[in-house]
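Thread title: Can someone regenerate the structure for this chain?

I was given the following input by a collaborator and told the matching structure tokens would be attached. They weren't. Posting the sequence so someone can regenerate them.
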Amino acid sequence: MSLVNFNGNILEENANFLNDGNRGLQYGDALFETLRVVNGTLFFWEDHYFRLMASMRILRMDIPMEFTMEYLEEQALKTMEANTLKDKARVKILIFRNHGGYYTPMDNGVQFIITATPLEHSFYTVQDTPYEVELFKDHFVNAALLSNLKTTNKLVNVIAGVYAKENNYDNCLLLNQKKQVVETINGNLFLVLGKTIKTPPLADGCLNGIIRKKLIELLKKLEGYTLEERSISPFELQKADELFFTNSIKGIVPITKYRKKTFKTDTAKNLVGKLNAMARLG
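Best answer:
Regenerated them for you:
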């Protein structure tokens, strides 16, 4: 049985610490950060922390004085220790607003839950396994600021995940209302054509991902590649040499097939080592 950290207190997983007034449950009024933690190091923790603080401000949540980088890092490691996860773990920090709503005064104060689960590998790896995707066209991501935030409002992603499972795809590519390709269900999309690497801009509605940010920083310094933050149309997908997506837990995941097109994985394999080096340096 795993243990959870609720507002700094370690509780058993089945403890009754939430109720029907929880705004995350009632309204999707919550944010989260998912972190890879290895040997006491929270990968890219400064980036995660400042994204969380900026997102809380955008959602007009009050930020408690104790919510320093040091305090939340301490709580994350405390949760790992309680679950006897010494070397490596996936840590999730969930922030939600206090009770209140339509019929009672809203309290902009917040509470938090931190969970920790085991990871298989200490550092990012690229698996040599088939990975097929398809466009999800039933619902669209909104090309607006709130889509950039890591909130619990993820119904499009959830339904796309069900669609992928029902049709034996490994993932889906999500579109915005302008029919531009935005991201995958669980990560930021990158397209490789020759020595040009494209990723959708935040204005298209993609998540403001941490690994997306770190790869953009890396690619701008890396000789031999040209990075473009530009919209991607569905017609470009089958012309690409490679497709891959990124997130904080898996790092870089190569896509090997979209419809009749198969893709190489050379660039993804080349970049994952450099991403690991960035993670070691913090």
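The mean pLDDT is 94.
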